[in-house]
Structure to design on (170 residues):
C-alpha cells in the first residue's frame, strides 16, 4: 500500500527537477579548479565515539588552475586528472596543536586534506556568470578552450550550478 503513495511523489519530484534546469550556449568561458592542501586536527572528549569532533584548521596553500594551463606557483602536476597543485603547507607543530586543545579533550593526528573547487565563468550577451561546477565540465572546457569551441551548458536546479558542457558544432 505504501509503495503506491511513493510513485506519484517520485514522478512529481522528477518533473520538478527536469523543469527547473535550463540550457544556454556560451562562446566566452573560463573554467577554474582551485586545488588546495590544508592541515587539520580533530579534537574531542573521546575521538573514537564522538560523532562530531571539533576540527581545527591550520595552514593552507592553494593554486588556481585555469582552462588546464599550468598556473604560476604550481609545483606538483599535472596529476592523473590534469590538475596542478601548490606546495605543501607547513605541518602544524606539536606546540601549535596543543595550544588549541581544550581541557578534557583528546587530540587527533594532523591530517593533510586535499580539496578541489570547480567553477565556470561564462558570458551570454553582456552578462557574465560564475557558477560552481564539476570535474567533467572542467575537462570539457579544457578540451574546447584552445579552439574557443562554443559550449552548450546545462544548468542545475534554479540555475545555481553548471551540470554539463557539450561542444556545439560551428
Amino acid at each position: 500500500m505504501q509503495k503506491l503513495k511513493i510513485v506519484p511523489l517520485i514522478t512529481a519530484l522528477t518533473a520538478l527537477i527536469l523543469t527547473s534546469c535550463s540550457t544556454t550556449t556560451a562562446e566566452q568561458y573560463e573554467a577554474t579548479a582551485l586545488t588546495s592542501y590544508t592541515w587539520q586536527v580533530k579534537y574531542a572528549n573521546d575521538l573514537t565515539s564522538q560523532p562530531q569532533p571539533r576540527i581545527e584548521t591550520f595552514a593552507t596553500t592553494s593554486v588556481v588552475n585555469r582552462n588546464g594551463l599550468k598556473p604560476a606557483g604550481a609545483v606538483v602536476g599535472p596529476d592523473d586528472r590534469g590538475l596542478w597543485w601548490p606546495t605543501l603547507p607547513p605541518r602544524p607543530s606539536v606546540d601549535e596543536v596543543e595550544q588549541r586543545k581544550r581541557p578534557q579533550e583528546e587530540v587527533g593526528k594532523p591530517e593533510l586534506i586535499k580539496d578541489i573547487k570547480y567553477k565556470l565563468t561564462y558570458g551570454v550577451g553582456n552578462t557574465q556568470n560564475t557558477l560552481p561546477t564539476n570535474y567533467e565540465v572542467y575537462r570539457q572546457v579544457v578540451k574546447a578552450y584552445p579552439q574557443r569551441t562554443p559550449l552548450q551548458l546545462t544548468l542545475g536546479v534554479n540555475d545555481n550550478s553548471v551540470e554539463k558542457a557539450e561542444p556545439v558544432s560551428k
Summary: The mean pLDDT is 91. The beta strands are 23-26, 28-44, 54-66, 106-107, 111-124, 127-132, 151-155, 162-167.
